[in-house]
Amino acid sequence: MLPIFSETKRVGIVGAAYRLQLSKDPKVEVHLYEVDGRVGGRVKTHRFTSEKNQYFEAGAMRIPDTRMHAPTLNLIRLLKDTHHAGLNLIPYLLTTPGNRIFINGILKNVSDHNTAMALGFNLPEPYNNQTADALLLSAIESFLDLLGRDFEAGWKLLMKYDKVSFRAYLLDLNWPESVIDFVETMCSQTNQFALSFSELVMQNMDFSTKAWLTLEDGMDKLPQALAGVVGMDNITFSARVQKIEQENDQVKVYADTPGGRVEGTFDKIVLAIPPSALRMIPERPRWDPTKEQAIRAMYFEALYKIGIRFKTRFWEHVQPPSIGGQSTTDLPIRWIVYPSYGINSDGPGVLLLYSWNTDASVWSSIPFSERLRSSLCHLSKVFKDIDVFDQFITAEDLAWSEHNPTGDAMFFPGQFSQYFDIARRPEANIYFAGEHLSRHHTWITGAIDSGRSTAQDIITSFTSKPCPTGWIPRAGVEPEDYYDSEAYRRKVAMDGLEGFKGDRKGFEDSILHSSLG
């Protein structure tokens, strides 16, 4: 039977609504504090107009259709079936044959045999006639195979290499630096191989599948559906937490809002926010030095996205066409993502230019007008047969390092093994959650996994025996009498799991005018 408490318990959550699953447990009142005027965190869809397909994903944009990501897909289906949410999964095309590659000033197609030599790299034998994808797979295939067969055994092996960077691992395989640079350029983003070996293997585990999905009409429909389940009355928007105070067996939260300061008293609170946001709360408890070091040190990489709306979907009409998928380039724009929605439709379309890490950081230092000018200029080098300036209508961008989520978790060497358990450890009646506190960074599934684990820990603390969180339960389904949290985590892993500042129109008009003039 479901857990019974002697009195109603109150839980406060600082962070995105979809990160924690407590809202339907009996006798638990949940209230959320959201710093933005919306829910979703790094799930953000920007819509240029109300017309169909005139949007881009400024945050999370795709879901691998794998066992590891089943928690996300199951959540979507559960919300649709049980709560009648308008969530429709559609195919997401990661790569298609017509996608262009522009490297070292050489224009190729992804369907070509893109060896190092063909792309202008001068590598020693036997590497010169190999592709980057083949080289990368040869280096990590045994780890991917083990993770696929036995995730826990694979994870244990990864932790033995966790203090080694991915670049150091490849050097230990006697790869020349030039070969490592080639593979990083083609398969990753600049300096990402300086991150931990375990992080890069986990990332490539996701991208080893060919089956991908996304949500029709925008990924932000998922957190919006979850907010509907939680209840809008239980969410305080535009609330920046300024103080957290532990007093006796309770904890108080003080937040500033446009309407003034608000406060709430709770039995437990969950800080479902990135470490950078946690650090910037002016008044909060201080924990032991190892915990504070973990909060300071956990690395989040920069992300930059710009969506550009054009008069036509010209990329679908060139030869060969890009019908979904993405292009890779060594230009500052790095990735060109072609929409998997609205394929072959008439009228305007939206392209997404996407970069991470060092490639993303360079965009933050220049104003929007220069970002847009540079984006169009570089795009024109990949599509020399298209006047992208004439095609241009409008644009919007987002440099995540300038906003509260800051980016996504991608740990440096040793941070998983040294900080992971410490960072997610509860401190009395204060708990912690987020994708950075899962073993599956950067993905919605990581946030869900962390949220479930934290919710289970809280419910267990309210009861005399462990029990699973029954949030948004299916009709007639009740938790088992006994619940093993570690077994549950293993099962989840294996079964699969701001608006604009200033006058942007003026910027865009000046860019278009100067480009045509």
The count of DSSP E runs of length 2 or more, i.e. the number of strands, is 22
The amount of helix comes to 25-40%
**Integer average pLDDT:** 88
The whole-angstrom Rg is 24 Å
In short:
Helices cover 33% and strands 20% of the residues.
Structure description:
The chain has helices at residues 70-83, 132-149, 151-160, 166-172, 177-187, 197-206, 221-230, 275-279, 289-297, 357-361, 368-382, 388-391, 415-424, 444-462, 485-494, 504-516; strands at residues 9-15, 28-33, 45-47, 55-57, 63-64, 89-91, 100-103, 106-109, 212-215, 235-236, 240-247, 250-257, 260-266, 268-272, 300-301, 303-310, 326-329, 335-337, 349-356, 392-399, 408-409, 430-432. It is an alpha+beta fold. The chain has three domains: 9-41 and 220-297 and 410-483, FAD/NAD(P)-binding domain (3-Layer(bba) Sandwich), CATH 3.50.50; 45-94 and 212-218 and 303-405 and 500-516, Polyamine Oxidase, Chain A, domain 2; 100-206, Orthogonal Bundle (Guanine Nucleotide Dissociation Inhibitor, domain 1). The strands form six sheets. It has a seven-stranded mixed sheet. Helix 2 packs across helix 6 and helix 14 (444-462) runs antiparallel to helix 15. It is globular, with a radius of gyration of 24 Å. The chain starts with 8 loop residues before the first strand and ends with a helix. It comes from Serpula lacrymans var. lacrymans (strain S7.3) (Dry rot fungus). Residues 16-459 form the Amine oxidase domain. This is Amine oxidase domain-containing protein. GO terms for molecular function: L-amino-acid oxidase activity.
